[in-house]
Amino acid sequence: MRFNRQTLDALTLPPGKAAGFFWDDALKGFGIKLNAGGSKQWVVQYRTPDGKTPRLTIGRVDTVSLDDARRQARIILGKAQTGQDPHAEKAAAKARNAVALGSTIETYLVKAKDRLKPRSYEEVERHLRRHWHPLHALPLTGIRRADVALNLNRISETTGRINATRSRAYLSAFFAWCVGEGIAESNPVIGTNKPAEEVSRDRVLTKAELHAVWNACEDDDHSLIVRLLILTAQRRDEVGAMTEAEIDLSTPMWTIPAGRTKNGRAHEIPLSEPALSILRGKHRMAGRSMVFGRGSGGYSAWSQGKARLDQRIAASGVVVAPWRIHDLRRTAATMMAEYLSIQPHVIEAVLNHVSGSKAGMAGIYNRATYRAEKQDALEQWAFLVTAL
Prior knowledge:
Blueprint: H1 5-9, E1 19-23, E2 30-35, E3 40-45, E4 55-60, H2 66-81, H3 86-98, H4 101-115, H5 118-131, H6 145-159, H7 161-181, H8 207-216, H9 221-232, H10 236-240, E5 247-248, E6 253-256, E7 267-270, H11 273-281, H12 302-315, H13 326-340, H14 344-351, H15 360-365, H16 367-387
Antiparallel strand pairs: 1-2, 2-3, 3-4, 5-6, 6-7
C-alpha cells in the first residue's frame, strides 16, 4: 500500500495477533509497526552486506509526521546502500552515551600518569576527581556547557576563583583528549567563562625581607633547604629531593639528572662556599640516599616548615609581605641582574631555562663556558646574600 492519512487510519490487525508490520509501496523498507493496543511506530528495515535485515524505529506515528518519517527513512536507507550500518551506528552511539564521565576520567588519569611529573599528576588528579565529582555519574557525551558552568560556580564559591580556573583548565584538557580519542564530539568547557584570570606571580623580596628570611632559618631541614634555595636559585622539589649521588663535594658541583628537571635536561649547579658549608654540615641518616627528609622520599613537610619559618620571621619584628617558596628563585634571578649585573644568558643558565642561545648544538659547545660563568655568578650571589 501507499502510505497516506487514509490508509494509515484504516490499518487493522488480524484477530489474536499482538503486532504486525505494513510496508510502504512508495519507499521500499519504510513501514509501520501496529501494536494490538492501537499504537503505531514508524520503522525502517534494510539489508546489510552480510545478509542481515536489521530494523530501526524512527518514532511514534502520533508524534512524527509521515513526511518527516519518510525523510528520515530515506537517510537511513541511503546509508545502507553505501555499505554503512545505521543500526550498528545507533548501537555504538547508545554505548558511548552510557559511558560516564567518572569512568572516562579514570582512563585518562592512567594514561596521564605516564607523561606527567608526579606533582603535576597529583594536581590534575585532585581537580578531576574531587572538584568534578558532582558530574561523574553523567554520560560523557551528555555533559553540556551549562553543567560545566554550574559546577564552576560551585567550585568558585567553595574553594575560590583561582582554584576554579585551574579546575576548568584541567577539565578542558581532559575533553580535548576525549575528542582526540574519538569518544567525544566536542569540548563543553569551551565557551564557559573563566572564574578568574591567573596573573603570573611577580613577587620579589626586598633585601630587608630576604635578610629576614635568611636569619630566621635554623638547623632543621626546611631551614637548610630554604637557604640552599636562596643560594642556588633552583626549584623547591629539586632541592628537597636532592640525593647524595648528585653531589660532588670535591668539585664542588651539584648535578640534577634530566629526570628531575622541569625541562628534561641535566643541570649542573656550581656550589658556592656557603652552599657547600650547608651540605658538609648536614647530618645524614644512615642508609638513606636522600639528603633531606625521612623515609624513602625527599623532604615533604613544606607547609609545616613554611609556617614555622613565618612565625620566626614575625617574632623577629621584621614585616615581610606574604611570600611563597618559589619567590626565592625569582628574587635571586632579579637581584643577580639588578645588583650584580649578571648577564641574562648566565642567569638563564643558572635557572636551567632553555633559550635560543642554549638550544641545540650551541648549548653543547657552550656548556663548559656556562659552567664557569655560573660558578662566578653564584659566588657573587652568595657573597651578596651573606653580607646582607
